[in-house]
Specification:
- By secondary structure, the protein is mostly helical.
- It is built from 14 helices and no strands.
- The longest helix has 28 residues, at 134-161.
- The protein folds into two domains: 41-166, no CATH class; 176-263, no CATH class.
- Helix content is 67%, strand content 0%.
Length: 266
């Protein structure tokens, strides 16, 4: 599709505004967003599989047959991609219905899923659905998602009408260089070096890893990075989006090794 210069300018302005908003969010929410994209691909279907995987882990009764019962959160990703998919699609419909006039905003849906995922894995949520029936557990998560949408909409309204000076002074701007406050230097170096080692046969992409990580923490998702050619290696040696997603899986695994889910709540 051919876009006019004016259309491209508006798209760029919208993305810039999104970056500014993302940078103003609390650290825990931003890190949850990054983990959601890295670990779950940012889709409602994956949210559904995670919910059902957690239900299996914590004794929810009446679950559909599964090839195994996960013993930890990492094993959930080994469940079939179709497991919980229908429920994830239903969750997406709840979000879209609650957003009403904003129903076409994929960014809003992704943001809400990320926040809801953070709540879903929290100890309080796990305690609430442990040992329940599937119907009871789903009802709890449905309400959790609905409340997350309402909180998101309230936040959006405040954002339109209030000054954010105190908030922006209280948090970092989201760039990799300013993550020292939140990550040990050894963690930061280990993550970069670990990913670069994985891509030693693609030196151009390996050299872009610090930039790639920085973009993730600024709120960009892989599709935006790919579409915008935001890495020098993507401009020099264009690759398909499918190839980038394959590489993202490698990045995700290194993150898993160095940052646990406990880091999100820190």
């Amino acid at each position: 599709m051919n876009h006019t210069p004016e259309h491209r300018r508006l798209v760029q302005a919208a993305r810039s505004q999104k970056r500014e908003l993302f940078a103003s969010l609390p650290w825990g929410m931003r890190l949850a967003h990054v983990f959601f994209n890295l670990r779950l691909g940012g889709t409602a279907e994956e949210f559904g599989r995670t919910a059902y995987g957690l239900f299996l882990m914590h004794g929810v009764t009446g679950m559909p047959p599964a090839p195994f019962i996960p013993t930890n959160n990492r094993q959930i990703s080994r469940l079939p991609s179709s497991y919980g998919k229908a429920y994830g699609t239903f969750i997406r419909s709840i979000i879209i219905r609650k957003l009403k006039t904003n129903s076409n905003s994929s960014d809003a849906v992704e943001d809400i899923l990320a926040i809801a995922w953070q709540k879903l894995v929290s100890p309080s949520a796990v305690s609430a659905y442990s040992g329940k029936t599937l119907q009871e557990a789903e009802k709890y998560v449905n309400e959790l998602v609905k409340n997350t949408v309402l909180s998101y909409l309230k936040y959006e309204r405040r954002r339109r009408h209030e000054e954010y000076e105190e908030m922006t002074d209280a948090v970092s701007n989201g760039s990799w260089e300013n993550l020292d406050t939140f990550l040990l230097e050894s963690q930061k170096e280990a993550i970069v070096e670990g990913i670069q080692q994985k891509f030693r046969k693609q030196p151009d992409f390996a050299a872009d890893i610090p930039k790639y990580i920085s973009l993730l923490f600024e709120g960009y998702n892989p599709l935006e990075i790919w579409e915008g050619g935001l890495l020098p290696s993507l401009q020099k040696n264009p690759i398909s989006y499918a190839t980038l997603m394959t590489r993202q899986e490698v990045v995700r695994e290194v993150f898993r090794e160095h940052i646990t889910e406990d880091t999100i709540a820190a």
